[in-house]
Amino acid sequence: MKTGHHHNKQDTESAVANMIEYLMISGVIMGLLIVMLLLVNTNIMENPANRLVYVAFTDIGNGVSTRMVDVYAIAPANGTVTTKFDIPDEIVGKDYFVEVVPGAQPFDQDIIVSRGYLKSQTSLAGIGASLKGTATGNTTSAGMNTIRYSSEGGF
Questions:
Q1: Could you read off the pLDDT tens digit of each residue along the chain, which spans 155 residues?
Q2: Of 57, 86, 138, 153, which sits with the fewest C-beta atoms within 10 Å of its C-beta?
Q3: Who's near 114: CB < 8 A, 6+ residues apart?
Q4: Distance between CA atoms of 137 and 34, rounded to whole angstroms?
Q5: pTM score, two decimals?
C-alpha cells in the first residue's frame, strides 16, 4: 500500500453533474407548481363560487317575482299598495343589483339579478299581460326594498 494515496476521493465531475440534475429537476417542478397554483384558484375556488352565486341569484329573482305577484293579487281597483321586503345584503361577500326589465314577448317582464358578468334572469310570473302598465324599477341588495303598486300606472 502506498502512503499518501487515497481510494475514496470524490469525482468532481460527478458532483457537478448531480448538482445540475438537482437544479434542473427542481426548476421543472417549481414551474409546474406555479402553473398548478394559477389554475387552482380558477377551477377549485372561483367556479364553485360562481355556481353558488348563480343559484342564489335565481332564488332571489324567484322571491322578488313572488312578492310582486302577491302585491298584484291584493291590489285595489283604485288606490295604492306598498310593501317592504328584505333580500340578502351580500352573496359570497359582495353586493348585487335587482332590476325589472321588459321580456322577450310584448307583455313579458323579467327580473334580472346581476353582479359583474354573473346574471340570472327570472320571469315575472305572467302578470305582465294583465297589468295596466309595465313593471319597472331596480334596487340594490343593501337595506330594505319597496314594491309599490298604483292602480293608475302599475308597479
A1: 455 555 556 666 777 888 899 999 999 999 999 999 888 877 788 888 889 999 999 999 999 888 888 888 887 778 888 888 889 988 888 899 999 888 777 677 889 999 989 999 988 866 655 665 567 788 888 888 888 887 776 66
A2: 86
A3: 57, 96, 97, 99, 120
A4: 46
A5: 0.70
